[in-house]
């Protein structure tokens, strides 16, 4: 049985670096202790390793199909694994105790869930989406809505979805056309088509709670007209039991490069498949007020984006561990300069370029894991920080880090998966080795939950200029504090200098980009900005990790030293030409006539 | 029907830039003219577009299986497409007229074959491998061997394979264990297992000619003990008709991420499946002398590697054209700063970041196509250059460019396929869009025919130091000649300066790496060297293209200008931190203890 994720690294990051155990001093987490955190991590690691990882390939090879009765058929093993997960109580992790939750810190919950994401991205997506769904309802729903629709999801009895995209509107949510028609009884009827709905239909649970963005008739155009609705697959009776079938129809399944174990659907709302209450139209319940849909959704977006980033990290990380395992045992060739062709072959790790590929992966995935757990820690801080200043600081940092936390691992931990294949040579390109699937699975992450391009516009077009650059200033101040600590120690002083120079330059370039005040010019090369900022931030995360290592020495800590050295020598300098390009306000892309493409 | 490759670009590169029509002045190509070249290109474009591209997805979705009779079952459409290809006479392209060939220049042949590689990598692989096989036999076989085994392959009646790798020996060919036992009649009997044999078994042709590396009993260890054998699937009677079944057994099919339409096999030689001549053992015919196997194979390696590079370019190129087509028609959102949310959505090309992704693809695939056609032109020059100096110069350039021509497109045209998916958003991640398959197919290219790491050792460990650096000097001299021409024109002078600085630095760093004379130190970061050298070379190819554009202006030529601008602004500067790292003789990877990974 292969290792899905390094528990020692998770523990190091959570407890040595982020001091997660100190969270138990806060009222919300007072019932917890390092022991209960360990128990959650132990349980997650065990279930992920024993129940999720072994079926990951099976789910890939046996995509969902629609049976003759119109129902989605999934491998039985998926339902069994998810039942074990549900019975562990883990879905309730972060929720309030009075909703049946465990009131776990998000930090610990994310660390624990990463094991599932590493073991099987496809299987993990069902609880992943459901948690986000319930989270949104708990935040914005009425107590009755929470009780009726969120609690069964928290208990793992039902699953939930997020229905945002439509065939003609993905990144551009303002252009959705799903209509909601007000009814006399206060409910709405929805009509329209939703695309890319993961978990959109299946028989894994007795009900599915769809959270649907739609426009009430007469609403203003664009994002201001968007409202959020609860649309259950089956209506729910007053006693909480399953009622009539709602008018939500499965139109088709999408067939993707990866994530094949997740049903991904095209759904029609209100096409007349069912006639709840005697009429066609999908019965929906408004969440909050009309027109608040996108704001409500965005309120949860940080957590969703951080979880997507964590999914990318998890896939990259498990791929790295698989490649490492292979490289230590597979023999091939001899090192350059070896003279005796009849000497035994050496392990792959004896080849410098294989070590380079492994160390690069390590720097990406452990850097990514650090970044994502740091962001998770900010979410807890934002919610439970000691005072408003601490909470605001966490909020500001989170805002500016979120697009990076989503995008950077989607790019670099996918690059890690690419290297994991390369370490395996021809074998890695076959479906007999897990790294092949990880690569295909991870390719989704730069797309969903806001593409790379969208994240780059969010970072450069909103986050770093918000409040006159206040959020960016908070990040810079935070990094500078690390730099100051690192400058004081021999081992880290040179890294501190290198990082400091890049942070200063990033701030300077940000100013240069916006100096003219023209968004078209400032944002023309936003993707380059996102990449440069990401590398600066991850270099900082590595320096933080090295400071947490301190004076300790063993193979694990030497690994942290080597990965930091790699990141600063091979990766961080990549930002210099990127920042130069940005500073030049290059117009190549801006002025390009599409006709010449 | 979608465009598989830009014919205008192929024509521009072949005829405007590389002056391929002037080859007809040479004796070998005297029967040809621009018109016959055009006819071959026309025919290839038509067959590729009408017969190969339409079945590409079908081949992906219907992998070969082994039927109950032990025979490989492939979709009938594949055989039909390949029959059209065979009947066109194209397989005989580059071969001598007296072998039934067309004596086409390799340059034109490669340009023509790229259409097939773009239309369906999997389908094209059958003739691709067969051509390489016949090529090798023509070069090294006896006239009788050529007549018996190569001519039917040239005629497209039989297919050929290359059997090098074994399960335990891929990159390390010196460690193969397949044995060849000398027989009294001068033939050999082979015993062993060969892995990753593409086209290793099928019913597409009545015979398959395997070219097999094996060691004659008593041969020295390592590569010096390797010999090359012809091992036909069916023995061949004296009159050329099909004889007894040889002792070559299909053990299994490999299931890959992509290239699913190509049978990729594990073959056993001499396991006793058949008993030709009454005894077990695969009957083989020695090619040339014993112990010459690897040298013979390497003699063909440049062409094979250039063809693999071209395959990577072709997949990247067709992906780019698909993404461009999509981006021009798909609408989404509005440009930054647009105020009216009810205004119609804009085409994807209106978004700067989408233009960036398209222009990046263009710079990779058109740069790659230029590089590969240039190398093909060198192969012709090496064979038919006016005098020995010209032929030597072509040879030296080819030696140093080959690892780059193989690796650079395998990396960057795969990156283009990645961007092509990204331009499509969620749709690009589904198997309904061709770009999804191109990405999976292209992921093979950094692995087969020498991995990225192997190419980097070849470049830095052999090619740039050969003859005291003579080959590298020839490349530098060639690039400097371009720089001198470019320096004289306003439009290109600045590019000339930028390129010149990088070339000088590359030479300097090469010297620094080898100054200590320690291969372990020099080669520790060879992959970084390969990448830096590749970008310098492709920047040169772009400058050459721009010089070939001259004063002409239309959308096509403006596109060349924009892509050159992009490559020099966004790509070439990436080599600076790479060269700095190399110059520092960084030991991070060299000194890394695998235990700390």
TrEMBL record, chains A, B:
Q: Where is the Acyl-CoA dehydrogenase/oxidase C-terminal domain?
A: 291-457
Q: Which InterPro entries does the protein's record reference?
A: Acyl-CoA_dh-like_C_dom, Acyl-CoA_Oxase/DH_mid-dom, Acyl-CoA_Oxase/DH_mid-dom_sf, AcylCo_DH-like_C, AcylCo_DH/oxidase_C, AcylCoA_DH/ox_N_sf, AcylCoA_DH/oxidase_NM_dom_sf, Diverse_Acyl-CoA_DH
Name-wise, this protein is Acyl-CoA dehydrogenase
The protein's required cofactor(s) are namely: FAD
Give the highest taxon in the source lineage.
Bacteria
**Similarity comment:** Belongs to the acyl-CoA dehydrogenase family.
For this UniProt record, give its keywords in alphabetical order, as a comma-separated list: FAD, Flavoprotein, Oxidoreductase
Q: Which residue ranges does the record assign to the Acetyl-CoA dehydrogenase-like C-terminal domain? A: 476-593
The GO terms describing molecular function are: flavin adenine dinucleotide binding; oxidoreductase activity, acting on the CH-CH group of donors
Q: Which organism is it from?
A: Aeromicrobium tamlense
Bilayer-crossing residues are none
**Domain Acyl-CoA oxidase/dehydrogenase middle, chain residue ranges per copy:** 162-235
Which SUPFAM superfamilies did the record assign? Acyl-CoA dehydrogenase C-terminal domain-like, Acyl-CoA dehydrogenase NM domain-like
